[in-house]
Amino acid sequence: MRSAMHRAGSAALTELLQFAAPATEEERAIACDCGQLARYRELRSKSVLTVVGPVEVCRPYYLCPDCHHGQFPADVELDIENTEFSPGVRRMHALVGLDAPFDHGREQMKVLAGLEVT
Hints:
The protein has a four-stranded antiparallel beta sheet. It has four helices and four strands; from the N terminus they run αββββααα. Helix content is 39%, strand content 25%. A hairpin with a 2-residue loop joins β2 and β3.
C-alpha cells in the first residue's frame, strides 16, 4: 500500500512540477549577477528525489549572453539548486545521519520511507 501511495504521490508531484515556458516578453529575461539580462533558452528537466519518491521537474533555463552564466529560478524557489534531493529528503538525511554511518542510514531510509539513496 505504501509503495502504491508513493508512486501515486510521485506521479502527482511530477505533474505539479512542470513549469511552462515564459509567456510574455517580460518573463523571457531575468537579472543576471553580472548586471545584464539572462534570456530564456528552453525548458530543461531534472530528476529530484522527494519524500514520496523520484520526480521529474521541468523548468525554464535562462542564459546570460554576456557572462554565459545559466540560471534556473525555479530551482531556487523550490530549494533544489545544486542538489538532487528535496528539502524533505535532506532533512531525513540529516536525522538518520546523526545516529548511524551512511550505509545504515541508507538502509533506514529504505525501510522507513521506501527511498533508495545511493
